[in-house]
């Protein structure tokens, strides 16, 4: 591959980027986009994978002996420990996106990744369930700034209808690696007894060390916002910013002020997308935290329960990317979200009510694929329908923090007393998917109506204050 020279661009002080007027060489464009993909997506995928694995490995650790050692089976201790993570995770989303702009992507993400890696390592040495609960709170605090930062950065590099495939790539990578967490956990169980530690201790220790190693890679290789990047030339950077300017007119960041934040928070569609995201993360977290427990309740032993968690995640990754590709290809979001919500309803109902283990296991495939696919789909739907960096920062934080609410919901409605079928949790999950469908219909009607009124000349001024902008349905 031809090496493209790298030099620090002189873009970040520019206050305006002119849209592209002349014809663009498609080979030149593909070459630059491919270079951006390879710089951003592999490392971001790896980072998000360990993030997802570190927050959801409680199920694996419990199956590997943590439940007995820390008395997590008493009352609702396991659900409480699982739930506590999401309190700081929700509260610090919006402040973290403000700090992201202040510190820059590299410094802020390094703080986040190294912080939760250290906490994850420390979880391997806890002796009581209270100490574990405290670690989960700290884990949620450090991870709060991570996922919204990734989504924010990715959406600033690409045009609107290129976003979902990119979100799906790093998300499905995390699904696959997260799906192998059961196998990884099983492999780590062979360390049982080393240095006087149980299997579950080693799960946290090994995964914590892996996270700290990735924090070093993050510091060395992560890319900043387009106007501050150091791996493209000034000419290439201007071209990327001009593409974004052509697409939605917000290539240059606007200043974040209190009045702007309050104005953005008054947009009801942001809150609707947040509720949709909450409803899509709820079953995803429920499966992550309870899948090995459910499989164990079907009669499979510890080894089989850990190993059987992987196939549903592999299937989910394939399904997620297919839906993302079709969505970007057709430039439509809502229909594909609806189909995946219906998949989740079908799968979770089969898992809850089928009598035989085969159909129940198959239900996990459908439910996991539908829920996992809805997550990047809703993020793309939300990000496609906003303009300006300030609104993107607010919207991303609000929407993703709602995902934390979905995590709290999942850990509280799948109660210990409902083991092994968790029927209350099943119905709560179905209710969330119905909420997605209702909110999807309302927002799509609103966006379609505004698009139509603008075309008919019945709206004064452009949509989102950006001439030529139309909402994505």
Automatic annotation (TrEMBL):
Cellular localisation: Membrane
Transmembrane segments: 78-100, 107-126, 138-157, 169-188, 200-222, 268-292, 304-324, 336-354, 360-381, 393-414, 426-448
Keywords associated with the record: Membrane, Transmembrane, Transmembrane helix, Transport
Topology in membrane: Multi-pass membrane protein
Cited SUPFAM superfamilies: MFS general substrate transporter
Keyword match Transport: yes
PROSITE patterns: MFS
Residues covered by the Major facilitator superfamily (MFS) profile domain: 40-449
Gene Ontology CC annotations of this record: membrane
A GO term, aspect molecular function: transmembrane transporter activity
Protein name: Major facilitator superfamily domain-containing protein
